[in-house]
Amino acid sequence: MKEQSAQDRWEQHTQRPLLALAVLFAVAYAVPIVDTSAGHSLTAACTVAEWVVWGFFAVDYLMRLSLSRDRRGFVRQHWMDLCAVVVPLIQPLRLLRLVSTLLLVGRRARMASQIRVTTYVGGAVVGLLMFGSLAVLSVERDSPNGNIRTLGDAVWWSFTTMTTVGYGDHAPTTGLGRMIAVGLMLSGIALLGVVTANIAAWFIERFEKDDVEEREQTEAIRALTEEVRALRAEVAALRKTSVGG
Fold it and tell me: Membrane-spanning regions, if any (predicted)?
């Protein structure tokens, strides 16, 4: 049995705690946006919680880097993780911290062997809908010309944008809101491609399985036919022997 490396053991042991921290980040990000009456202390506590969660993911990246046997290869393979760790330090905008943390959560979720593709895609859809709605609401609610004023409007807009329907009844008017819209559109197209590819792969696998079963049945029938022919030959030989005797 192949022995696990220190990096693999670290990733295995930290999967659940990091996913739990991701839930904490979701709550901390959502509370100040949904609860418009939240005081300064609550908002500050949520901001601290966001930075703490991001810090844990940054430490996780550094630990995996230090435990890797090929650090240059690790950086090349996980360059998006590195960007997600560095960007919030360069420009500490809340939206960038959101994108960076979501990216780190998604990358770690893909490493979890117990998370199947369907679960990953479903979680990605729910996460993008929720955070896309919260993000666009936070930047559009106070815009003078904005028409996304409530959480319901934001969720509806996120859903129509991710599915590339775009009814046009709600649309962002700020620069950041439009950037969020572009991100949701691209994410929706990417997820649709993943779902389509998995459905196609499932059908191909089913057809191949049916073909294998059909070939096995054909081979079994052929073998039985050969056995019947052999038995007929033996019976004929016995008849000749009995007649000759």
Answer: 40-62, 117-139, 180-204
